[in-house]
Automatic annotation (TrEMBL):
Its cofactor is dipyrromethane. Pathway: Porphyrin-containing compound metabolism; protoporphyrin-IX biosynthesis; coproporphyrinogen-III from 5-aminolevulinate: step 2/4. It catalyses: 4 porphobilinogen + H2O = hydroxymethylbilane + 4 NH4(+). Residues 6-218 form the Porphobilinogen deaminase N-terminal domain. Transmembrane segments: none annotated. This is Porphobilinogen deaminase. It comes from Polystyrenella longa. The gene is hemC.
Amino acid sequence: MTASTIRIATRASQLALWQAEHVAALLRAAHPDLNVEIVHISTIGDRDQTEPLANMGGQGVFTREVQHALLDNRADVAVHSLKDLPTQSATDELFLAAIPAREEVADVLVLPADSDQQADLDSLPEGARIGTGSMRRQAQLLHYRPDFQVSSIRGNVETRLRKLDEGEYDAIVLAAAGLKRLKLENRISLKLGPPLMLAAVGQGALGLECRTSDQATRDYLAALNEPYTSAAATAERALLNELKAGCHAPVGTNSHLAEDSGQLMLEGVVLSTDGKQRLYGKATASMTDAEQLGRQLAQGLLDQGAAPLIDV
Ligand SMILES: NCc1[nH]cc(CCC(=O)O)c1CC(=O)O
């Protein structure tokens, strides 16, 4: 009998390649007889580094073309950064089959390589120029320091670090997960966590998709699902979905799972893009009710008046 082959589709960025290789290694470890190949796909999100992401066909700009490779049968598995994957699937033909163990969730502040600034938000100068295109990061920074001059920054992680080091910004905000995966942890100047900075829904996690009809691949991927990460991500995604917000909306979340009791705590914030308004909610439920928990928290935020803040 010949061994089965699984083809993993990935974008060409270093981070995407790392994530694809990571999933390949997990698949080989779980299924030693499986032959795992990697297929490279180029996306407009990667090719066009000039436009702000929000103007570029919006949601799913990083995930769509990798998904097409699955639908065209050029590959069998798509590896996504879960935070880039829209909560509403564009088609029933694709299935989110597994969410493996999560990397660190937090965002971090990065200072220029030659900076003599102290790494804390309070000692950055008045009007400091902060690079981040994320409405969620911008709004939470402005809520804390309205004097900051926040502006968009594009490109993959390495490009953003180069722009920072060339002096375009006094600091930038990135996900800890991306820096750690690229072995650039030494660039982390300061961890930004709750209550100041709540992360994006699904941040630090991977989402593994395959064709809904491909039962063999669904079974292979199921072995890579990590139940705690999966429950937390399910609650976070239900929150975003019920808010009818996309991954570019000023919505942040934090979740904590007590593994002994199986209780899942979920926090959410919705801000105005200028950071002046900030709505906060928190709820707890059994991890088996993750989806319901996310919806309930969303309802609480909508009752506080979240809808007009999201519709930006
Ligand atoms: N939108 C870009 C993106 N998508 C996933 C990551 C890093 C990994 C993660 O957050 O899960 C990044 C870079 C960043 O936000 O710094």
